[in-house]
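User:
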Amino acid sequence: MDEPHQPDPHDDEEYQPSSLARRVPIPKLFESVEKEGPFTECLQCGANLLDSGRQYVIEKVFRGPEAIIELAMCLNCRDESGQCMSAESAEAMQAFFDARVSFSGRIDELLLRREPAAESGAIDDWVDRCMFSGQPRSEMREYQVVALCSGQEIIRDFFPIMISGEVMKELAEVLSEQTKGWMDDFIETNFGMPPEFCEPPEFRPVLI
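Assistant: Predicted structure:
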């Protein structure tokens, strides 16, 4: 049987978790540094995220101990933003994920084989190593974490994930120039980071 595609929050307004998914309190790693606490509203539409029951994505990009980019966005706005990505880039990103990580294998490993962590509120096994390379987060200068949330909880199944800076560079290389331009504009508009900040020898944050 073919391996199913990885879950994509861009596909539908309401993401359908696996049957093994659990909801756990959002840990400090996924809180806002700027707000000194939980993300409370969508970056794009300003909708309340904590009390509305709607699903949303949190992304944070770290350079050393500092979160240089952080955002929370409801899935409806995430879907609209995803439409700015070229079809070529969307297909390339999906192929990158499909070729290098198993959706069912990740869930089986984290939620079935590691029962103690699966039964607690911990997310360490999800984010302490790069999902693609296995490199420990403690050894990285740059990395990105992504979580799918609902209210004040993380939906813990395939997500949350952590991606090393090295893999982020590889992922950026498969994107079209059109998509890179859109991401540069998005980052500069929302976070005041000029495009040259993301060029080699630095790394380019990739919105997942």
